[in-house]
Specification:
Layout: H1 9-37, H2 42-68, E1 75-79, H3 88-95, E2 99-102, H4 112-122, E3 130-134, H5 137-144, H6 147-164, E4 169-173, H7 179-184, H8 187-190, H9 193-204, E5 210-213, H10 218-223, H11 240-248, E6 253-254, H12 256-273, E7 283-289, H13 291-294, H14 302-310, E8 313-316, E9 327-328, E10 333-334, H15 337-342, H16 344-354, E11 360-366, H17 369-373, H18 390-404, E12 409-414, H19 421-424, H20 435-448, E13 452-455, H21 479-493
Parallel strand pairs: 1-2, 1-3, 3-4, 4-5, 7-8, 7-11, 11-12, 12-13
Antiparallel strand pairs: 5-6, 9-10
Length: 497
Amino acid sequence: MRNPIFNKPIFKIIIITAFLALIVAFTIFIRHMVNQNQPESADSIEVIEDIAAIEKETLSDTLNLISTSEISYDTYFVSLYDKFVFDSEYIKVLMNWNTFVFSEDYPNLSDEFVFDEINSVILNFDYTERVFWGIDPLIIRITEGSDSSFDSFVKDHIVKEVSDHPEITFRILLPAHSIAYYSSLEKEDLSLLEGAYASFADALSPYENVEWDFPGNSSWIYENPGLYEGDFETIKQPDSDAIIGHILADDFKCNNDEISEKASSLMYTIDNYNYTPHNLSDLDIVIFGDSIFAYRQNDTAIHYILKNFTGADVICKAQSGAGACPYSDGNYSKNYFGGQLDDIAGLKKEVDEVHKDTDSLVFIIEFGINDYFRGIPVSSSDDPNSVSAFCGAVRTAVNNIRDIYPDSKILILSPGYINVMDKGTAKVTPDSSILDDYGNACTALSEELDLGLLCLTDLPGITPENFDSYLNDGVHFNEDGCIIVTKYLIEKLSEFE
């Protein structure tokens, strides 16, 4: 007499799971043996082709098991990325739906045959409600080789399924690659990115059963570099757990129009940043400055990008309205460089909490624009250390820093371009200075006091002709400007390692 337990659905699930595990283990074992023992020859090519056949047979077996299973899945997750990006068990737990995942177990999901075979089964179940498709349009475009072939692929393999199944919600997950990944691509391939994303979004725009997830603009890249796995210099793929968490929280959800806009933002970031990673985790950085640093307080602010993208510890003491010199208009006093240093005990405690003996301590000084706006003299002929003049205030503060931290290094930033006050050429009073005079003073102080120097008017990409396109209001950098400033700031700081 047969044991009735064999007829229970749970037992069938166990059998199916065990069977799949054995197949996957067998496939991995064969691949390992090929990598270890096979020479680069015709024989090795035949073995690799055999493995591909086994994987296709495994997929077919899996699909047959799903078709005949008593379990009714309402959600499917099909990843066309690298097989290790998404962890199937984690997806199942987080989604809280009856979910089957085609991801890490099937390394050839970008193959048209595999993609079509999966869709032919899962999209024709009466109980399928939603499908998550992880798709990288750029990889498809590179693989297809031409715009026309790419358009045909999208039409024949993606749009067709969406239009044939209006009852199913298709959630398309676009990549969240790191800047390191994009920097590793060939220029001719990278140039295809914006067009591929735009064409892909346009093709699916008529369909109301399509939803999008796309984090891949500059904000994502600079806010989340720590979510990428691997060594800092080689990171390419995002941490799967973090990505899935964001997707399920709808953090990346967007509409068709936003796809092209975000792709353009991403392209701008890649083109202009051209980033070479610098691991500055052995630097502890303290910033004294004005609203050039303090104006933006989100993930695209200069000090945020600096901290997130280098691993350095960053303390930003910059304050809007601050100048190198004390200033009062009779009603209130403005912040100033010396004022930011006044609480020596408090500052030292804050710095010492992050500063390690094995790290280098770097102070960044960035002032001049507000001193110019107020007509503060550049220098004093009576007292070179007078805090009532720009140069004297900087000298005094630098000496105070070195008294507390004699082994520290100091970097001074000269003012950038502005599009007010006749582009910095107007004078507050007949005897006051123009903005360039404060920049020249920074250069002279860097030589006199042995400071590092970064001139914000000498940054490649920002010129006297185009600088206003990098400003938000004629004075403060917009997101694109912050990206360029931070790039060259990081390069300059790398000299202090």
